[in-house]
Amino acid sequence: MRNLKLHLRYDGTNYHGWQVQPNDRSVQETLQGAVYGVTGEHVKVTGCSRTDAGVHARHYVCNFHTETKIPCERMPYAMNTNLPDDIAVTLCEEAGEVFNARYDAKSKIYVYRIHNSNVRDPFEKDRAWHYPIPLKLENMQRAAEYLVGTHDFTAFMAAGGQQKQMEKEMYEVSVSQQDKLFEIKVHANSYLYNMVRIITGTLVYAGNGKLQPEDMKDILLSKDRKRAGMTAPPQGLYLHKVFYE
Amino acid sequence: MRNLKLHLRYDGTNYHGWQVQPNDRSVQETLQGAVYGVTGEHVKVTGCSRTDAGVHARHYVCNFHTETKIPCERMPYAMNTNLPDDIAVTLCEEAGEVFNARYDAKSKIYVYRIHNSNVRDPFEKDRAWHYPIPLKLENMQRAAEYLVGTHDFTAFMAAGGQQKQMEKEMYEVSVSQQDKLFEIKVHANSYLYNMVRIITGTLVYAGNGKLQPEDMKDILLSKDRKRAGMTAPPQGLYLHKVFYE
Questions:
Q1: Which of A80, A88, B14, B110 is the most exposed place for a label (fewest CB within 10 A)?
Q2: Catalytic residue list of B
């Protein structure tokens, strides 16, 4: 049996996240429908991450087992004619029998986009967090530095998170600004529930003066969710890149 | 009576263009509704241009006469709380009694965005023309040069255009490329019906080899719409900037 690895890109606005939901449209279910349209097979597609409702993916990897003889190079076109415009298959690769898009992921980069202006931008609707209070880039950058390295990120996990391994290795947390657009880039081996959105909310508090950059150290050590900032809304979050061996 | 000049930005995806339509949602009508919400007055808002259904505006100027005492600096906020997320008022200025956003416009810049890839991009849905056949930038740039200057643009006007003055002064027609995204920038004193979309369709034919760059000269001289290229779809077109004295 073949094990196909698909690379995707999707606008999550109209989906209740990746995972199949009883009464809501999910990316996973939509993709499984397209696989059925192409191969006639009912398969379970395994995704690299359970993105939340409204969260986007510039790069997402999933896999499924199939008997189809369709060559990899024809799969993106075949899938895309069976998918809505807000999801695209960009590449298909033959994977080894045991490859699992979720468990084999070595690390992931997320990007969070903030539109910092007192006037909203219609072209950033559903694509960024419109945050009207002025942010100080330098304070956000100084705060971000405290998160790099290996830490217990319990303070940055939403209630309902099921993970047991609270220690994560953070390779990069950087903040950049282009005109009114701030981008937070986070690269870690794995993530706790809502971790990037809580990191973003906390860096925004460092940017607007609610917190001092050096408070980040205490917040990490406290392991107390209430010490960190708000959970930033989903529409600014993008799974940017997934890495495998 | 005050004459207010509003600067806007809008995503045209969900509108049947600028102008009020009997059975469709228009930007003009939506704006007039917001003015009523803010001032209690039923006004006619005059726009700088009749953008088509699905066309966007990064900068659009309109004006209306009003008795309201609300200061200009408070108008963007007041209007935006009465407008849907895909339209934003970015600035309000006091204009002279006789100012007319349409007739007083000296020139306009339009930008047309083409996503040139065999795989569609979900984030460019409704924001660019997805064109899968490879385009040669250099040929498009050479073709564009023929359009600069003062010419009769009859060959680039759609049937139904009512204009009588076919000669237009073209200050700039340039084509640039960043990865898979091509941008055509057009700056003229005024425009014929669908002119930018037909220019785009013709430059795309120069880019894919259907036309030679030097054919542009004959197409202009022919004054024959059938000699020019296709009308590019609306979703790639942006009114980029409007200039006044």
A1: B14
A2: 52
